[in-house]
Amino acid sequence: MKRLQRDPIRFDVFDAFAAFGQQEKISLRDPAAASGFVDRARASVERSLSNEALLHGLRTESMFEAMTASLGAVEIIKQEDAGRIYVTDTRLKVPDFRLVLKDGSQMLVEVKNFYQGQGEKARRPFELDRDYVEGLTLYAGAMKCTLFIAVHWAVWNIWTLVRPEAFRDEGRTKEVSLQEAMVANHMGTLGDYSVGTNFPLSMVMSADKTKPRIVGADGSGGFTIGKVELYCAGRLIEDPLERRIATHLIFFGKWNYETEAKIVANQIDAVEHRWTPDEDHEQGFEFVDSMSGMFSTFYKFATQTEDKIENLQLDAAPQWGLLIPEDYKGKALPLWRFILEPSSPALQNES
To answer: Strands 146-153 and 106-114: what pairing?
Structure first.
C-alpha cells in the first residue's frame, strides 16, 4: 500500500486557522489573526508534548495505521475522525479509521493504547465508558459498517481487534480482559499471524584472525569482526530471503537474548549472540511472536529513544505482509505460521 500524497501543512493548518478566525470573530486578513493563531498553536503543541498519555495514544493510532497498511490484507485505510461532520444525533462518536478489505467489506476501528501496569495490575481488564461505546456503535450503524475496537496491550505488546459484543457490561463501563479479547480476536482479518521456528536463533561474529584478539589479564579484550553468520538450531542460514526473515525474528521477536564468547588459547575466536524462547514445549518449534507484535516492536524502536517518544509517524513502513512469501519453503529456517480465528462471527457489514 502507498499513502496518497497531500499537503497537511498547507490545508490542515489553514483550516485550523480559519476555525480560529471564526471562533475569535476576527478577519483572517487582520495581522493580529495570524500572530494570535501561532501563539495559540504553540501553546497547544507545548501542552500536548508534556502529556505523555496523549503522546502514547496518538503514537498507537499511527502505529495501528502503519501496521495495517504493512500487513497487506486491506485495500484502503482512511482516517475517519478527521474533518467536519454534521449530525442530528449528538450522541454519535466517530471512530479513528475506516478500513476497506480486499473482499469489499468495510469496518470502522477505534484504536486504544492500554498500559495495565506491573505485577497484579498487568491482569486488569480494559474498560471503556458505556456511553462512549454506544456512541461509536450508533455511528457505525448509521454508516452501515461493522465496528471494532483495537487495543494495544502495552505491557504484553499484543494487539486485539474485537467487536463491542466482546465487552462485558459493568454498569457505567464496558470491560474485556486480555484472555476474553484473545478469544474474540479478529487481527487475522488484517493479515496478522504468529510465526514459530526451531531454536536457538544465533548470530555468530567470528574474529578476523589476522588482527589482534588477545584477552587481557583483566578478562577484557577486543577483536575485529571477520564475518557474521546466522544459524537456526545449528544450521547455517545462507539463503538471502531466509537471512532477512531470521534477522526480523531476532531483532523484533520476543525470544530471550544471551551472548557467549568463544575463547581459544586466550584469544577471541568468535562471539555468539543467541535467542531462545522462555520455554521448550517439546513440539519441535516455539512461537517467536505475531507479525503485529514484531511490527509494533520495530515501530517503537523507530519512534522513540529509551522511553521518550520522539516521533509519532514513520514516512514508510517495511512490507511485513510480504516478509514471508505464501509459498515459503525453508531450507535452514523452517517456519510455522498460525492464524488466530475468533470465536465470534466473521465480519459482516451492518444492514
So the answer is: parallel
What is the pLDDT confidence band of residue 9, given thresholds at 50, 70 and 90?
Answer: confident
Residue-wise pLDDT for 153-193, tens only, equals 999 999 999 999 999 999 999 999 999 999 999 999 999 99
51-190 domain in CATH 3.40.1350.10?
yes
Q: Is the dihedral of CA 84, 88, 93, 97 positive or negative?
A: negative
Mean pLDDT for the chain overall: 91
Domain boundaries, the chain: 8-43, 51-190, 194-338
Q: Helix, strand, or coil here: 336?
A: strand
Q: Are 134 and 89 in contact (CB under 8 A)?
A: no
What is the spatial distance between Cα 44 and Cα 65, in angstroms, rounded to a whole number? 24
* CA–CA dist 33, 31 (Å, integer): 5
What secondary structure letter does DSSP report for 315? S
